[in-house]
Amino acid sequence: MPTLADVDLVADRLPGRELHDVLATARETDGLARVSLLGAPGLAITRHAELKAFFADDAQFPGGESYQFMVEPAVGRTFISMDGDEHDAYRRLATPAFRSRRVSTWVDDDLVPLAHEIVDRFAARGEADLVVELTQVLPLWAISRKLGLPMGSEERQRVWTRALLAQPADPDGAARARAEVTAFLAPIVTARRDAPGDDVLSHLLGHEHEGLRMTDEEVVSHIRLLYVVGAATTSDGLSSLLFHLLSRPALLDRARQEPDLRPRVVAESLRYDPPVCTLPRLAPTGGTIGSSEVAPGTLVLCAIASANRDPRVFPDPDRFDPDRDHTEMLTFGFGQKYCPGAHLGRSEIAAALDVVLERLPNLRLVDATEPAGAIMRSVDRLQVAWDPIHR
């Protein structure tokens, strides 16, 4: 079996148990393991305690410079590539529409009907690849509907999203996608500033905090960020959830019969195979991780997938158990930069699961690929069948 030092976390897909076996060996051998990312050497934090402390330590390990290197060339300048007071101010401008109360209302009033609308397109067939037909579609439809963007452009948005995510491996492709997103959004933003509507885009353009407002370019950058950290992660998380549930018929039957279980199944899937399983960061000034000193400029890989299976925190961590305590999972980070879209992402995945179980009776797995990817992790194919209801 290869060690973590033998693999490249971008080039090597490490499907199924392969990733988790490699991470487990590193975690039990050395909590701070040597690793390679696109040929660049780095250190991976593989244990829960050290990773939680790293996320919480903004003094030694501010996140902004990491995102300036990894994300900003593709997405543009947003609050995630800022630190300190600037980060706090722009986060307040960009995220109030994603607070829990607003999310709950939006899920019930808009997202659930949207999921039904998508399922309507294939429910009568009795078979589908749910990755192609659902998991890659719903998050982008949801973003378009929430922002008030013209519907029908979601396939282009999907292509742009994957190209933006290829930064820094394919900077030219990411740059082209960035320019195409700007060309698509700029006239919409201009029109919406002149004539606001009842949508999140109008809110972003009009919201003010202590005299500060987002410029048109900052709003466009924020939407690019939503494609990357909103649509892509939700799509990937939903695909893994459906794979794990459909691979366990007894649990699938239980989820059908116990709606209250479903949020816990969602949480367990997000722990078991997080959509962002390794988060690259920089340590610009160096610092202490556990008992080790790291040099300034060190590339640090936050191995979320490893921390989420640390047996010191999660007993029997390789068992898929929705009844376990998920309080300590680090899928959405920790501390000041805990993902502000966490509640929205979990709610969207849970709502999609409700609709799938309601609309596709006797749903069963026909053929699928296992979750794969060592940075972003998802299922590429999820062929299923069900007993169609002819209306």
Task: Please describe what this structure looks like.
The protein has a single domain, classed as Cytochrome P450 (Cytochrome p450, Orthogonal Bundle). It contains 16 helices and nine strands. The protein has helices at about 15-30, 50-55, 65-70, 70-75, 85-95, 100-120, 130-135, 140-145, 155-165, 170-195, 200-205, 215-245, 250-255, 260-270, 305, 340-360; strands spanning about 30-35, 40-45, 125-130, 280-285, 285-290, 290-295, 300, 365-370, 380-385. The longest helix has about 30 residues, at about 215-245. The N and C termini lie far apart (about 50 Å). The mean pLDDT is about 95.
Task: Enumerate the strands of the largest sheet in spatial order, edge to edge or round the barrel.
Answer: 1-2-7-4
- The CATH superfamily bears the name Cytochrome P450
Work out the strand percent: 5-15%
Low-confidence stretches: none
What is the approximate shape?
globular
Number of strands: 9
The tally of helices reads 16
What gap, in angstroms, lies between the N and C termini? 52 Å
Instruction: Please write the CATH class name.
Output: Mainly Alpha
Count of discrete structural domains: 1
Helix content: 40-55%
Query: From the coordinates shown, what is the CATH architecture?
Result: Orthogonal Bundle
Mean pLDDT across every amino acid position: 93
Structural class call reads alpha+beta
Biggest sheet overview: 4 strands, mixed
